[in-house]
Automatic annotation (TrEMBL):
Family stated for the protein in its record: Belongs to the EFR3 family.
Stated name of the protein: EFR3 homolog Ba (S. cerevisiae)
Pfam families cross-referenced by the UniProt entry: EFR3_ARM (PF21052)
Cited InterPro entries: ARM-type_fold, EFR3-like_ARM, EFR3_Homologs
GO process annotations (BP): protein localization to plasma membrane
Natural source organism: Cyprinus carpio (Common carp)
Xref: PANTHER family: PROTEIN EFR3 HOMOLOG B, PROTEIN EFR3 HOMOLOG CMP44E
Length: 759
């Protein structure tokens, strides 16, 4: 019996000794009582063994995974924690080429914990995964998949566990888990692309869901709370910023689209606050050179929602406006006009909705009722956004944008958008800011019947010309005995300024002169006209320009005297405009006798006709004598101070310096014929003598009539010129070979062409 017992003991001892060493080392790290924790001495032996025999690492991992699965099934959670701690230490210590197989075992164990019902096990598995995510592996992995972890961590972010504290811990674990997945995969080309829509559609909404929870959280300002770790909202924002910061050019769309969908699905555009906050995070987190891609996605989303309610569209526009402020200057991208085209399209749609009162003309709108005040709010938001975008552009692009908006007129609602572009407009080169292609149509609007449009155009011109922020110093309009109190900023005119005035001054003067004759003008119009004239004098005037401006001021005085058909208020206002402007010019020229004459006239007006001064424009009586500025006297005074008064001696008459009408027909034939058409227009339209209705009819004819009709109208002038051109040149003998005897053709230098045909 003793012999048999001894034999059995030997057999058992031999079997135990025959177990693989790695299993014995793994078993030894587990204490008898799990509360004692990991046996550190034995853990060091296991780590040393794994480093010495890396080929055994995968078996160590498989055995640890086997033990963990058994302990989870038996609810021995203390040993589960010990197993995960051992795995974490092995991962940190080992970076050999065979670690991939060990990682597979590790991820299997993490997956097992995340699938458990116990919140503590889920959090334990997440913590281990996050540690693993921060490890840089030396060897590539070709077959590893993280799809399960994206789905499971996203699910944890939406946890609805009953206990609020545990629910918060689970959600925070889910957020950290998603952060770990992103860190592990974003720079690994061998892994599944984390930027694919199937992953982004889970990750981004999960983060936004937790970011949104701050609205319902009330945190007490107790010292204990301040010492706590970051809240779920703070953790979420940090993770969201990290995700966006890692997005490359081709991934921006996939990262931003789920944000748009989340805001749509949860009706978050209307409140605006959360939507604005989300896109502020987006704009500040992505690389600055990619910001225009976000703007383009927002614009596309706005187009997609053009048939939605005004509050939704206004929310999207508000977000676009805030994003434009954040965007770096000039980084809107190559499609600048498309940005404004989209915004103006929305403005036009909103105005159409407001005017029609329903969406009936659009598909799938049902019986929705238009709310006018909401449409008005949307229009204001669009105009504000147009201005925000324009503010980020260089001056030359702003001019293009304004010209683009002018091309949309007379579509209702475009005018305020045009004004918003000039807000904060500053340019050092007036030629760039006001090219001919922009100035001509802009000036044409100064003569429109709509008083609001005329006022808006004047404000635009003022905003562009005012480069030293002087415009507000001329308001309110008043006679000032010493303009030094205005503290005007005056610089010497540049070469570009002189070229601009040489090219466009007569056109500017003419439209200012004609704008003063508009009967519907009110006080604001004359204040704007004075500000415009004052800025021209301060910003753009050389000696020649000063003389012309004085001529213009005197011509306005004559206009008020001779045009008895004008309303009484208009004539008084023109007199006041002339007076206050000459008062400014005389002090800028610093010619004492000129100043004395102007001041004498102003003092006479104060005593006799105060209604001819800006402070008291009331009614017009018979005006003559010492209350008028004398042109010959001013010419004599300035001539004695070195000014060239030949021009000043001639009364100012508005001149047509070029074709100011907008012709929209196209013709690719003989250039002479085209020039004659232009010449015909110029000579048939005398703006000084024709009434506004006549001008409108002429413009409408050349804009809308077919080419054949225009040709027939001008044929009487075209035919003789063509006939002379078509005659053959003279032969050496002086005859033309046509059988009709000797005849001499007219040389080109003897032909009589209209003025515009000669260059």
């Amino acid at each position: 019996q003793h012999t048999g017992l001894l034999y059995l003991m030997c057999v058992c001892g031999c079997c135990g000794a025959l177990r693989p060493r790695y299993k014995r080392l793994v078993d030894n790290i587990f204490p008898e009582d799990p509360e004692d924790g990991l046996v550190k001495a034995n853990m060091e032996k296991l780590t040393f063994y794994a480093l010495s025999a890396p080929e055994k690492l995968d078996r160590i991992g498989a055995y640890l995974s086997e033990r963990l699965s058994r302990d989870v099934a038996r609810h021995r959670y203390g040993y589960v924690c010990i197993a995960m701690e051992a795995l974490d230490q092995l991962l940190m210590a080992c970076h050999c080429q065979t670690i991939n197989l060990f990682v597979e075992s590790f991820l299997t164990m993490v997956r097992k914990l995340l699938e458990a019902d116990k919140p503590n096990l889920q959090i334990l598995g997440t913590n281990s995964f996050v540690k693993f995510a921060n490890i840089e592996e030396d060897t590539p992995s070709y077959h590893r998949s993280y799809d399960f972890f994206v789905s499971r961590f996203s699910e944890m972010c939406h946890s609805s566990y009953e206990d609020p504290d545990i629910r918060t811990k689970i959600r925070m674990a889910g957020i950290r888990g998603l952060q770990g997945v992103v860190r592990k995969t974003v720079n690994d080309e061998l892994q599944a692309n984390i930027w694919d829509p199937q992953h982004m559609d889970k990750i981004v909404p999960s983060l936004l869901f937790n970011l949104q929870q701050e609205e319902g959280i009330e945190r007490s300002p107790s010292p204990e709370t301040e010492k706590e770790k970051e809240s779920p909202v703070e953790l979420t924002e940090r993770c969201f910023r990290e995700l966006l910061g890692r997005a490359a050019y081709g991934n921006i769309k996939n990262a931003v689209k789920p944000v748009l969908m989340h805001l749509d699905n949860h009706s978050l555009w209307e409140s605006k606050t959360f939507a604005v906050r989300c896109f502020k995070i987006v704009m500040y987190s992505i690389q600055s050179q990619h910001s225009h891609l976000v703007i383009q996605q927002l614009l596309g989303h706005l187009d997609a929602n053009s048939k939605n309610s005004a509050r939704v569209r206004a929310g999207i526009v508000e977000v676009i406006s805030e994003a434009a402020v954040i965007e770096a200057s000039g980084s809107i991208g190559p499609t600048v006009l498309e940005v404004f085209n989209t915004l103006l399209k929305q403005l036009r749609l909103s105005v159409d909705y407001e005017l029609t009162g329903s969406y009936d003309s659009f598909a799938n709108m049902g019986s929705k009722v238009i709310k006018v005040h909401e449409e008005r709010q949307l229009q204001e938001a669009v105009i504000k956004t147009v201005g925000s975008f324009a503010y980020t552009l260089p001056p030359y692009q702003r001019s293009e944008v304004m010209l683009f908006i002018i091309g949309k007129i007379p579509v209702p609602g475009m005018y305020p958008a045009l004004g918003s572009v000039t807000a904060g407009f500053q340019s050092t080169n007036i030629l760039t800011a006001l090219p001919t292609s922009f100035l001509d149509p802009l000036l044409s609007f100064t003569l429109m019947e709509d008083a609001e449009i005329r006022l808006l155009v004047l404000d635009i011109l003022i905003g562009i010309i005012d480069r030293h922020d002087n415009r507000h110093k001329f308001s309110p309009v008043r006679i000032i005995s010493d303009i030094s109190v205005l503290k005007l900023k005056v610089d010497k005119c540049s070469r570009q300024d002189n070229l601009f005035m040489k090219k466009h001054s007569q056109r500017l003067y003419r439209h200012i002169y004609l704008a003063c004759k508009e009967e519907s003008s009110v006080q604001r119009h004359f204040e704007s006209l004075y500000t415009l004239l004052a800025l021209i004098c301060v910003e753009l005037a050389n000696e020649e320009v000063v003389v012309d401006l004085i001529r213009l001021a005197l011509a306005l005085q004559d206009l008020a005297l001779t045009e008895e058909a004008l309303p009484v208020y208009t004539r008084c206002a023109i007199h006041a405009l002339s007076a206050v402007y000459l008062n400014l010019i005389c002090q800028l020229t610093t010619v004492p006798t000129f100043c004395q004459h102007v001041h004498e006239v102003i003092e006479s007006r104060k005593k006799l006709v105060p209604f001819l001064l800006p402070e008291d424009v009331l009614k017009l009586e018979k005006v003559e004598g010492e209350v008028l500025f004398v042109q010959t006297k001013i010419a004599e005074i300035l001539g004695g101070s070195g000014y060239n008064t030949e021009r000043l001696a001639t009364a100012y008459i508005p001149q047509i310096t070029g074709l100011t009408l907008s012709l929209s027909f196209k013709y690719t034939g003989c250039p002479v014929v085209c020039l004659i058409f232009f010449d015909t227009v110029i000579h048939s339209v005398n703006v000084e003598e024709l009434e506004r209705e006549r001008r409108r009819q002429v413009v409408e004819r050349f804009q809308t009539a077919p080419f054949e009709e225009i040709a027939a109208h001008c044929g009487a002038r075209v035919s003789p010129c063509l006939a002379s051109i078509q005659q053959p040149p003279p032969s050496p003998s002086g005859s033309v070979g046509n059988g009709h005897g000797p005849s001499r053709s007219i040389p080109v230098y003897e032909m009589k062409f209209p003025d515009l045909c000669v260059y």
